[in-house]
């Protein structure tokens, strides 16, 4: 495979355009976030600006009449299906007293009851008629519900609820294939048919209360509205009750247990509630059961009022009821079988609330309420329910108390909020500020539903001053969903009219309003703060005459068949494993859709954003004539109709369409041009012409000069449409995507509106957006063509942009455990189809759009470098560097604007191409069992893949794409299959992700794998050589680690070496790395450093092979090993089967590789090998490389010496390098250089211990003594210096030891002595003297040769006193003296009894004084001195001298005869062992002793009490006489 980290150059545009993709991705995500974020309902209605309820529908902009657009009929009858003939025959043949008709829209069936029989048929074609007549009583109500899982039989997918006056019947509905055979492939679809089970699932009594309405929820709960006004629920569970009854019963949610104990007059008393938390209170007839007690009691109505309609909000768990008299109630749904009433609003209260908002209209307009429609949280976070009256008035309610605050004044309009951050992606729900006004001051806190707050009153068409039509009356049916209202009224007795009010096709206009005199929340007219701008909700009205009077109307929704009746995944491919994978894929994708991570619901994007994904909305209208299927045109359908009617793009309707919302219109037009090319080329060609005709050109907006105020903006494109005074260019888009000018062929030129002035970008603003190019005093706006292209691309990518690519699954008992695709195959195909059409459109119109080459990324050259190679460049956020205003205006400025837009469009084209390639690659992976390919990834890569979204894969996932492609190719190689077919497929679908070099390398892998399995050595070598040549042909774009491992497994070290050398030379053809290395690796040489690192990455494969031979894998080799793959294990096992796969041959290959590498002329390869040897501590082998002779001249000794010297100079503190350098010099007999290196190590300021420094100095002295120093005087001087430093270093060691022993807390002094060498003066002044180290002082005096007997004697006094004090006081005198004498002997030995440092006479006297003071044995001192090497003649002289001095110190010590006792002991020791004195001196010594003894006897005779000592002297005298 190609080297993933080195794919650069002209042939690798994907990596060159990283900044381009980032720019396009940011612009796309900003636009997607704003395009898909619906505006707050409170902003549309003006509640935020008034602080209370508001009204709309009275302004001309609420229901505008556009020239050319109003003629397009929004409603279209697509089919009329009569009631099946067999049912009509049954109806006319028999007389019936009661019949009803209705629709089941979720299963696409209609129903009709004739007394006690019910008929059900598919209303789309009138087929599949089913009936049930197992009831004896007349059916009075019919309903349909989902089932709860695990309660009924597995084949039951729906429950049909039939009620009579006495009982409630639950029937099971089963959808199955008519023949009962196995499922046929998807290419031959077969529809399921409906079967009603003959036996009821359950029977319940009505208890005398007829059921008037039935509602089934998606979760399987069944609610009943009764004639007495109570809400019931049928609770059914699995199993039976204790008494053998079915576990199915009815619960009354309107009456609690305690309500039977409360008088009715108390329960009917209304509890007041405020709709808004504002200072001004408004009373209404609202009952709230907010506390648990009230919830337990329930709501008990004082009169019977049948419930005629139930509506459920599954997102908020709320249920709304409408009574026959127009009362509305709200129930909060709890767990199964639990619900409680939270609010109740009577018809009179509803009218009073509406009149408090608008007091000028008749109250009859607001009564009665004929329908309530729940608004789920995905549609609006503000509105919870819409009530429709018989006159078409819509009342918008919330079930929580809304906190509203007026916005900022117009003076704060400059405080604008920018586009949402692109990091929010598609999850953002933050609405950008509009028209200079800050974000809405609406922060709803989580509240429990407790009331019904009227937020807004929407009047039907006909109430505006210039309205051409009258409002609808006698409305009897209504539907409201996703902002679209469908009503049916009866203007006459025979035919009804179908009304549709929709805001999908019209952008929201903006109006400026002034505040009323009093800020009442219920003002009679809509108002706002002074100077504020408010968005108006404009709706298009369409009226369709029907064939008869309407019995029911429902919106046709997608049929959701129960999964238990579907095949796995809904598709059978014939491959059992793939079918299971599809089933798991759909199972993973199930669950709550559209939820944020915190569990809250995401708002659905506007319908126009997803119009290409869904067909037109359809409605089934059930009349007395049959079923009439009606569709509501989408914006794209409206534009298509305009093009067809005008037979081209030049019409007033198209001009109006584009002027109202040019960006939206451009995106819709582009959608027709892309998708209609295959079905209707003529319309596609018209759409293309319209796109360029009304798309405009980029223009700059210049503000007035400083000091002139906010005057009229200067437009670079002067033409402006009158429609701009009513409509914003595109209210759903940010400023950067909404040019204030429209380049359309209209002639009127008017001043800019206040909205446009608010959109001007200040040159000092810090909120520049991608797409705005800030100039000196103005800004650049892209053209509508540009905006439309980005808009459409964002809409095409929206369904998959934030989908996770894979999901981990693990099902017990399933054979498939691993990862499945997070994008369904149908989503893949749909996105691929749409993107390819857009790609084709851009390629066909490239000369007008981007001026590029088109096609895929493989055709992009450096000539199309986006904003980075053009004259006008953009930074990463899309902004352009500041320029003078003159550069943005005039012809030169227009050229720059065109260039910036072309650059942005080229970025879009590259992003589009990459999206197509990623989708194509993902589809190939899914078709090759994605779980198998993904399972070969490392755990870390699998975790990354599971977290990646499609966005991440496109913008940042090229590395992972390459790994997946590699694993896919390896799966073919692992199966010993040819890679030609899959390589060709990958080259077709993703040519920039899988390039020609990848294909060549894959072929080389195939050849290499076959070579490993080849037994014939000659063929094997030939195939290995072929593989090497293929790999060399695509160098350096190759996965070098993978190929090197395979060559190594094949015992082909030559291939590893040649491939590494080839890659290195091609990555650095100019030799920048060698110059960088020879120059000392200068930090400012960035190019040389990059080349050096690239070459070193190549050489790592050589060192990896050597590392495996010299001790197996290590941490270093593990770092450079690619993730394991199937081919790796295959090659390894094949290599082991070969006879050459032994450790001996591995060593042999490594030895050959080492010799060949050092024999090459690549000095940087030598450096890599040397570094590897140092890391593996192969110092001996490294020194032996000097014996390898290069065939290119010289030897490896030169490169090693150069490497070591440069490494030592680069890092002078590196001990291993320095240590290796002196060993290298010593190995080549250069002792002087070795000594210099050792001297440098000893004096270095690094973390070298003192012991190591002494060792280095000793070795340096040894090296110098081994060299011939006589021939160079300087070498002799150096030797002397080394010896002196060694002696001082040893004294320093002694000082350090003494300091640690006596002053362990002197950390600073110890650290100083440990980290560096100190001269002799500093040792004495800074350490020995301050810390009282007397022995060290003595050593220093000895070293420097200082002669001061008095000072030396004082030092010895301190030494003896200190050592004696250190002896244990409890020890015997002899033991204490023994310890003292041991220290004296050590010092005497150290100084060799030197008179300068070891004054023997003085020391002997001081020792005898100590002995006398302690009372030790007389002979202990002289025996120690004799053992030290002091001769007896010298000792006799010393003692004779001491006795002759007649010192009074002995008397003070308590024994004035101590010296005489010591002397007699000394002479006695000689008489007993005459050999203590040499024979030549013995006679003289005996004579001298006789004289001394005689003198002592004379002295003793004159003293009293000396007889014992005299006797000892006489004995010694006799012995001496014998020796004489």
How would you portray this structure in words?
It is a single chain. The protein is an alpha+beta fold. It is built from 53 helices and 39 strands. Strands 1-24-23-22-21 form a five-stranded mixed beta sheet, covered by helices on one side. Strand 36 and strand 37 (778-781) form a beta hairpin. Helix 11 (652-660) packs across helix 12 (662-679) and helix 47 packs antiparallel against helix 48. The longest helix has 38 residues, at 890-927. The relative contact order is 0.06. The N terminus is likely disordered.
Give a quick precis of the structure:
This protein is an alpha+beta fold. It is built from 53 helices and 39 strands.
Low-confidence stretches: 1-15, 180-188, 264-302, 406-445, 510-533, 560-574, 702-778, 852-891, 1113-1141, 1189-1195
* Radius of gyration from CA coordinates: 51 Å
Global mean pLDDT: 75
Amount of beta strand: 5-15%
Overall body shape? elongated
Helix content: 40-55%
Order of strands across the main sheet: 1-24-23-22-21
Q: Helical element count?
A: 53
Distance between the termini: 107 Å
Oligomeric form: single chain
Strand segment tally: 39
Structural class by sheet pairing and helices: alpha+beta
Largest sheet: 5 strands, mixed
